[in-house]
Amino acid sequence: MDVQDVIKSKCAQVEPYLREYVSFGDRAIQEMVTHPIDAGGKRIRPCMALLAAEAVGGDSSKALPAAASVELLHTFTLVHDDIMDHDLTRRGRPTVHALWGEEMGIIVGDALYSSAFKALLDVRNRGVSSERVLEAVNVLVRANVELQEGQIMDMFFEKRESVTEEEYMTMIRKKTGALIEASVEIGGILGGGDKSQLGALHTFGVNCGIAFQVKDDVLDLTADKKDFGKPIGSDIRSGKKTLIIVHAMAHTKGEDLREILSILGKKDASDDEVNRVIATLKKSGSIDYAEKKVEELIQEGKRALDTLPNTQAKESMKAIADYLVKRRT
Amino acid sequence: MDVQDVIKSKCAQVEPYLREYVSFGDRAIQEMVTHPIDAGGKRIRPCMALLAAEAVGGDSSKALPAAASVELLHTFTLVHDDIMDHDLTRRGRPTVHALWGEEMGIIVGDALYSSAFKALLDVRNRGVSSERVLEAVNVLVRANVELQEGQIMDMFFEKRESVTEEEYMTMIRKKTGALIEASVEIGGILGGGDKSQLGALHTFGVNCGIAFQVKDDVLDLTADKKDFGKPIGSDIRSGKKTLIIVHAMAHTKGEDLREILSILGKKDASDDEVNRVIATLKKSGSIDYAEKKVEELIQEGKRALDTLPNTQAKESMKAIADYLVKRRT
């Protein structure tokens, strides 16, 4: 089966659960909290959770509410991110706060966060032991704390003159890696995985999570505008210290460096200015460097799965990892 | 011991735990997340949690992380509330978003929310069974979902022409009652309470929680300005449909009703206009009506505790309930 088909088939199982755990009596509330879920998305995290449960020999149907949980949690972060970044559209649709105001956006995000926990606790009704449920809750909480820490670091970095590669990698491991890692680990816990299996899933998840973010940073500069759904180079305008920028700041000098610094963080930079920075980042090898890093991380993640038994689920997880590198949006 | 001393002594036990669960490596992050904790507060919720554990014959030291949890959760809601209400000060100090911006306020609130769960999970290290920990997590999650539903209802009500008393009571049961109820129920669960004891605590918590909010609404109109720490009548300016307003809208007519309607929700209403509305609400008996309701709710809450064994903790809980009615700030 093609990887896109695997994702689609796993997704289809999770979809109804996403809505089950955000059911409010009031129709107007219901509309607001389901709006960002209906916007769709890659559903990588729930898919990974279900496959991880199977990869340790478990029954993925026991992990279905948990799969919904990690996607709801991801959705909550997007709703708050969009407010913080003042983004009025996502995936071609108006964001929650664009429709109902920032005040409501904050609380709708909070409600999605709560719903994520509600979903996870529902695995109690699927014959999972209290110890394993509690361990899954603990992994989710740990991921959340890291995620918010990573988001704050990201905001700090935007205002700093320079950031080291190590600092950047720590930040994205928390901001993006933590929840992807938690998704596979929770799947593994609920699938009955032992300590060494959970360790393998952890390594896979962390590496894929970091790779996912670096790939996102690359796509922000290289994606085809018409497929991407948002403007090219928005990270440059917002002054994000991505791996590409961090590399360029350490490996360019003179006019090239001055040009990058003069446009980075310039909110109203023209397309032409952004394109000049992108050309410079290509010339300095910074984009290639990031692409290579993505490839290495994915290889390391996939290698970690070697210790797991050979199953269709394991192959699907590897295929999704490959897809993360190759995707164009 | 005087009730204020009981609260103070219980508080003192919880204080260090509040900070333990919001420890971040980065000093700047640490400063932001502890700022709203350092602002202080009545600490009613953690105090209730510890007393409830003792009231069912349990060891309240097992519930200490849970007591920190409910206060952290309360703090999270205040940080987001202040952004939504555009309040720049709370308890005489600048709010989080006033100091670090709304974007940071959102994420600091989120981090406090995550920290609340981190705290609650730490009761695992105090010899509480997995089943009871999970039940406590479940109660906290349920309260959060209700809390956010209540906050959304509150925002909807501000824009509606009229609200019934029943609708108002449902809203504040969720918005304010749910977390106070959860605090005593979680204390009872971790203290080893049985089903009937937890039922009694639930009834006590719900009634005190609703009474607490109605009393807040009364104080907004009747408190002594110099003790209150915020302007008198801010609910009138923001157009809140409190129980007092709901009562007045059903029991006044002619010039009195027209005056209330013309000033309610007028953001720039003068002190004189606000005072005229307050005088009208006194004349219509609406403030007395709310005061009486507070008294009734507290009596009903205290009665529920009759089924519990006679302990110092039970007496302290009743004394706190009485304090909720009598407080002036």
Describe this structure in words.
The structure is a homodimer of 329-residue chains. By secondary structure, the first copy, chain A, is an all-alpha fold. In chain A, 75% of the residues lie in helices and 1% in strands. Chain A is built from 16 helices and 2 strands. Chain A has a two-stranded antiparallel sheet with strand order 1-2. In chain A, helix 1 crosses helix 16. The two termini of chain A are 21 Å apart.
Using brief descriptors, characterize the structure shown.
329 residues; globular; 2 strands; two-stranded antiparallel sheet; mainly alpha; homodimer
Produce the secondary structure layout.
2 copies of one chain form a homodimer.
Chain A: H1 3-20, H2 27-38, H3 44-55, H4 64-84, E1 89-90, E2 93-94, H5 96-100, H6 102-121, H7 130-159, H8 165-190, H9 195-222, H10 225-228, H11 234-237, H12 243-251, H13 254-263, H14 271-283, H15 286-304, H16 312-326
Antiparallel strand pairs in A: 1-2
Helix pairs in contact in A: 1-3, 1-4, 1-16, 3-4, 3-8, 3-16, 4-6, 4-8, 7-8, 8-9, 9-15, 12-15, 13-14, 15-16
- What order do the helices and strands of chain A follow? HHHHEEHHHHHHHHHHHH
Largest sheet of chain A: 2 strands, antiparallel
Structural class of chain A: mainly alpha
Mean pLDDT of chain A: 94
Based on Cα principal axes, name the global outline of chain A: globular
Radius of gyration of chain A: 20 Å
The spatial strand order of the largest sheet of chain A comes to 1-2
- Which two chains have the most extensive interface, and how many residues on each? A-B, 43 and 43 residues
